[in-house]
Amino acid sequence: MPDFCGIALKHPVINASGTFDAIAAHRVYGNQLLDDFPFSAFVSKTITPEPRAGNEPQRIWETPAGMINSIGLPNKGLAGFLAEDLPQLAQLPVPLIVSVMATNREDFGRLVEEVGRRDEVAAIELNVSCPNVHSGLIVGEQPDETEGLLEALRPRTGKPLIVKLTPNVAAPAEVAVAAERGGADAISLINTLKASAIDPATGRPGIAAGHGGLSGPAVRPVAIAQVRAVAAVVGSPVVGMGGISSGADALEFIGAGASLVAVGTENFRDPRAGSRVAGEIAGALRADRSGAPIGNIA
Amino acid sequence: MTAPFGRRRCRVSESRDSGGYRLFSLLDPDGPEPLPGQFYMLATEGHWQQSGERPFLPRAISVAETGPAAAGVRLDFLIESIGPGTDRLCELEPGEGVWVNGPLGNSFSAPRQLAPGAAGAILVGGGIGIAPLALLRRSFAAKNIPTRVLLGFRDAAHSGGLDDLFSCCEVRLASDDGHAGHHGYVTDLLAAMLEGDDAGSAAVYACGPPQMLETVGAMCVEAEVACEFAMESPMACGYGACFGCAVPKPGGGYLRLCVDGPVVRPDQVEPAHA
Q1: Model pLDDT for residues B166-215, shown as the tens digit of each residue
Q2: In this structure, is residue A291 part of a structural domain?
Q3: In B, which residues are within 8 Å of A71 by CB distance?
Q4: Domain assignment of residue A177, given as a range
Q5: Mutation site for B-interface testing, chosen from A17, A207, A268, A277 by largest number of B Cβ within 10 Å
Q6: Strands A186-189 and A238-241
Q7: What is the number of structural domains in chain A?
């Protein structure tokens, strides 16, 4: 049973923020969802200080072995989340991790403090990397900014702080070390890779915002390299994600140094992907590997 | 009835051409019978990502017909080949496996639920949009709700399979090329019907291209006739997770078409997106 920042988890598979809406899924699937919850902890969609409607469509675009999204963080804002969503998420049979994002340290601090004081919340993930929002400064691209943000937030809560890194930097390990120095308890990566596609029918970008974030199996080798680089230099646990669709994929991340893994885009294709990946990890760890090929061009 | 949680594998029992479309049947041993307007997320078990690239995401497809099978229910889907996912679904052969998630989304209302004075229904379908109206027509027939059916097609190739889904009822046709029925749009037929004395006693149910839905919505608002659409929007998951299928609401903000639709009233969506 994995221990993550003092939180006991039944297995090492959680969800990537923004890829599973447990409240909507409960509406669709009823209590089957609670009886067979796919993740060992649930990460909420990112909460911002004020409500956001999200970006103008078109928001998603299918790509080779993946997709681009530019959703724009639609959410009810802090007050709406605490009043309407948190009571429902508290009914889930697993620990709750709340993802938060703000465009300045004071708002970020208010989010962390108000979310962190709720008993229903086990940990807080800081979205310092979402590339979809035209918010100006992207903190997670700068080690100094990231360290400064963590120093400002650390005193505001006793709950574990997980920093979700952006992959759209030359050296994510430097940002991870800075986050840890500032007081982060864990690092999660990768967020989506900045990407675009041109609609052949119009000659214009297929995503209304012009670009978005790439996810799915296409990004997995990039994510593995970044998880390896980060896990090699931080002492904190690492949550690895990026194109995981099977237990074999998850084991690559664990081999690269991740303590936990998160399933994201695969949830769209298979609502029970989390349970399936967890089962495949357990099965693979028991399997006999004699007779395995040398290399993978087998 | 909620959908079984997760995706499940169903077998293709039949697949054939239906005019310009492909009609195939799945045997679903586990799922409930879907309601008219509901949809499924479908991906073939084999050769999805055929070229190693696309299709990647499952495709949201309305159920066109259903009925009891030896074990479970039969699900019929009408597909138009317009991209890598629908191309692959059109290639399905009996015995192949399909990953199925559903039934998802809401369903059409009865006329009296939309307007107390509405006793009958007018169904308006354009092209591949006829699919959810087939099941709706049969469900209204079972409830003795008088139903008139107006369908529009581009050309003879596309209307050729009409009898597969609408064999036992009278259909008024419109065709862009004039090969059958009214030479023009199906909305012309609706306009004539809404001018009749009994227009107020009907509710309109429409599915088809966005321009068609926009016209139908405007006509129904003008004639003060209750109306519902089954809409389409790019969708990755079908169960509220991806937020990709956002459709603008008139007062600002967005609907998620998968969980708030796919059946909506014209006043729930911005006209430009209906």
Answers
A1: 887 789 999 999 888 999 999 999 999 999 877 778 999 999 999 999 99
A2: no
A3: 242-244, 246
A4: 3-286
A5: A268
A6: parallel
A7: 1
- Asked if the structure places residue A116 within a domain, the reply is yes
Question: Do A18 and B243 lie within an 8 Å CB cutoff?
Answer: yes
Place of tokens 């028991």: A286
Residue A295, domain member (yes or no):
no
Residue A163: its H or E element: strand A161-164
Residue range A36-46: mean pLDDT, rounded: 98
Q: What is the predicted ipTM?
A: 0.90
- Nearest Cα to B15, choosing from B71, B121, B92? B92
CB B151 within 8 A of CB B51: no
Contact A77, A47 (CB under 8 A): yes
> Which residues, in sequence order, are CB contacts of B155 under 8 Å at separation 6+?
B20, B175, B176, B177, B179
- B202 CB neighbour count, 10 Å cutoff: 28
What is the number of helices (H) and of strands (E) in chain B? 8, 16
Decide if A5 is catalytic: no
pTM: 0.93
Q: Does the pLDDT value for residue B274 go beyond 60?
A: no
Is B251 part of the contact surface with chain A (CB cutoff 8 Å)?
no
Strands B263-264 and B227-230 come out as: antiparallel
Tell me the residue ranges of DSSP E strands in chain B. Answer: 8-18, 21-28, 39-44, 59-62, 65-68, 73-79, 97-104, 120-126, 147-153, 171-175, 182-183, 202-207, 227-230, 246-248, 254-256, 263-264
Find the CATH number of the domain harbouring A111.
Answer: 3.20.20.70
Catalytic residue among A9, A67, A102, A130: A130
Rounded distance, CA B272 to CA A31, Å?
37
pLDDT digits (tens, 9 = 90+) for B220-254: 999 999 999 999 999 999 999 999 999 999 999 99
What 3-state DSSP class applies to B9?
Answer: strand
pLDDT in tens, B137-168: 999 999 999 999 999 999 988 887 888 898 87
Residue A59 to residue B55, Cβ atoms within 8 A: no
Q: How far is the C-alpha of B266 from the C-alpha of A255, rounded, in Å? A: 53
A41 falls within a domain? yes
Pick from A138, A71, A125, A130: nearest CA to A99:
A125
d(CA B181, CA A237): 68
B236 with A58: Cβ contact below 8 A: no
Count of positions (residues) in chain B: 274
Instruction: Set out the domains of chain B in order of their start, with CATH numbers.
Output: 8-104 (2.40.30.10), 111-230 (3.40.50.80)
Please name the residue that has the structure tokens 């998850």.
A250
For chain B, the straight-line distance linking the first and the last C-alpha, in angstroms and rounded, comes to 28
Asked if the model's pLDDT at residue A229 lies above 90, the reply is: yes
Nearest by CB: B56 against A18, A53, A67: A67
Beta A161-164 vs A186-189: how paired, if at all? parallel
How far, in Å, CA of A129 to CA of A109, rounded?
17
| Site from A269, A275, A276 to mutate, B interface, most B CB atoms within 10 angstroms | A269
